[in-house]
Amino acid sequence: MNIILLGPPGAGKGTQAARLEAQRGMVQLSTGDMLRQALAQGTPVGIQAKAVMDAGALVSDAIVSALVGERLDGLEERGSIFDGYPRTRAQAEALDQLLSDRGRALDFVIELEVDEDALVERITGRFSCAVCNAPYHDIYKLPKVEETCDKCGSREFKRRPDDNEATVRTRLGEYRAKTAPILPYYEQRGLVHRVDGMASVEEVSAQVDAILDSSISD
Ligand SMILES: [Zn+2]
């Protein structure tokens, strides 16, 4: 099973990827992580990438492809979850080739869809305990006793500076721009499935599982 997981920041992509790793033994492959790992392990592609980066240049598509190939070779029977890759039509075509060279194929592209206004509300309302990091929300989960952490009794809370409307809207715009080049490519082939990313984690998990399990009955 090989899938691409798409969704803007805050849609719950990380939660689903972690769950699929734990429950299905799949491996999340993000280019950033793959690059860090290749550099740390000094793999052939890692050495090549390091030379490019040391020279101040950007890692080319060819190196990214080699990096993905190297990781796929190490997966054996495990499934893959691509995250943040591919980003261009050329990378999408390269991924098809990398997979087919290894007797694999892309099974699904799953997009966690969000209602942008609701996502802004969800993210900008987040805050957490400054002491124990217990999560709270202005609308959905206020402490039971006003301004007192349910878990540790602390009266200090914190908010992430990125959790403001302007930043969230900018990230959503970046996400749309990033996926626009590849979505039509996969839509043409009927691979794209959409899941309501605003639903509860349990509901999103159930919808994702139903998609993944649909290939088994085919
Ligand atoms: Zn606390």
Structural features, described:
This protein has 9 helices and 8 strands. Helix 2 crosses helix 3 (44-54), helix 4 runs parallel beside helix 5 and helix 6 (116-124) crosses helix 7 (165-179). The protein has helices spanning 13-24, 31-41, 44-54, 61-73, 89-101, 116-124, 165-179, 183-187, 201-217; strands spanning 2-6, 27-30, 80-83, 108-113, 126-129, 135-137, 157-158, 192-196. It is globular. By secondary structure, the chain is α/β, with parallel strands linked by helices. Strand 5 (126-129) and strand 6 form a beta hairpin. It binds zinc ion. The site of zinc ion has 8 residues, from loops.
Class by SSE composition: alpha/beta
Q: Spell out the helices and strands N to C.
A: EHEHHHEHEHEEEHHEH
Q: Summarize the main sheet.
A: 5 strands, parallel
Total helices: the number is: 9
Offer a concise description of the structure.
The protein has 218 residues and is of the alpha/beta class. It is built from 9 helices and 8 strands. Helix 2 (31-41) crosses helix 4 and helix 6 (116-124) crosses helix 7.
Topology:
Blueprint: E1 2-6, H1 13-24, E2 27-30, H2 31-41, H3 44-54, H4 61-73, E3 80-83, H5 89-101, E4 108-113, H6 116-124, E5 126-129, E6 135-137, E7 157-158, H7 165-179, H8 183-187, E8 192-196, H9 201-217
Parallel strand pairs: 1-3, 1-4, 2-3, 4-8
Antiparallel strand pairs: 5-6, 5-7
Helix pairs in contact: 2-3, 2-4, 3-4, 4-5, 6-7
Bound molecules: zinc ion (ZN).
Residues 129, 131-132, 134, 149, 151-152, 154 line the site of zinc ion.
Features:
three-stranded antiparallel sheet, alpha/beta, 218 residues
